[in-house]
Amino acid sequence: MPAPFSVWNTAPTSAAAQRKGRYAPGSSAHPAKMLPKIAAHAIAAYTRPGDLVLDPMCGIGTTLVEAIHLGRNALGVEYEPRWAALARINAAAAARAAGAGFGSVRCGDARDLTRLIPFEHHGKVDLVITSPPYGNSVHGHVRSTRETGERGVVKRCDRYSHDPSNLAHVSTDRLLNAFAEILTQCRVVLRPGGTVVVTTRPWRERGELIDLPSAVIAAGRAAGLAPTERCVALLAGIRDGRLIPRSSFFQMKYVRDARRQGIPLAVIQHEDVLVFTRPDPTGHCRNTAVNKGRATRPGRPTIRAPRTCTQRNRDGHR
Ligand SMILES: C[S@@+](CC[C@H](N)C(=O)[O-])C[C@H]1O[C@@H](n2cnc3c(N)ncnc32)[C@H](O)[C@@H]1O
Fold this sequence. Notes:
By secondary structure, the chain is α/β, with parallel strands linked by helices. It has one domain (7-280): Vaccinia Virus protein VP39 (Rossmann fold, 3-Layer(aba) Sandwich).
């Protein structure tokens, strides 16, 4: 059945206003946080109070915080100890504020998800919601020249870490194959009929369009998940029927620089939301290996990012 709404009004207020009072100092330094209302919308749409939500790449724990405030329980995995520690603090604060629910965060590589998630939760997760790291060209905060004493605009907080193994720092093809592996493991911990929501967007690399949403759909299929919806989550507000852009300084700069090179970019003001389900033809937990933990891990699919733009850029790359 088609979804009743395909556009989510998720930025009626700014990201800072949505986060106010809910996140520990230091959280804003994460370069690519999910907009809280995107997480909240998905959690409200695809789960019920008391359900279990998992984010295998949880950053500072936005999805866990929103889940707990909505009366759900939440599990998170994050590769970087710095962000995992903040996710733990943020989830604990949410549980205190909500007076119920739990949020548990493990630090590790989500390709080891079935080992990191306690066995008691295997086959019990109702919703996986996550966002892979991608296209860091528009990440970062502006640091004022008064702070630094330097001339011109200085970028800060634009990296997840300096660890080359963080999936933010590998090639797009490696990221996609790792992400397919992570989704394969998510399928094991999901209950049959459970939902996976991935937020992502396309970006350009040396002038080429990297169609990450299409590649993520392929990764989901390869992981044995069925794509069910494709929605748009707005990053722009709506006033008097018009979109109010909420672009960052570096998003604007990126687009202006590209246009100067003859690449006809526009500022992206939405996230693609890709929704999958774990098929449940019988209504039972069919896969007995789910109850044996890691035994269900299928072979690795190979996913490549479709490159759809043939425009030659300044460096002559296609
Ligand atoms: C787009 S961010 C997610 C942000 C998160 N939704 C939030 O609001 O804070 C992707 C995260 O994946 C993490 N990551 C990278 N490689 C990973 C891996 N192999 N396993 C788990 N997390 C990983 C990055 O450190 C980053 O924090």
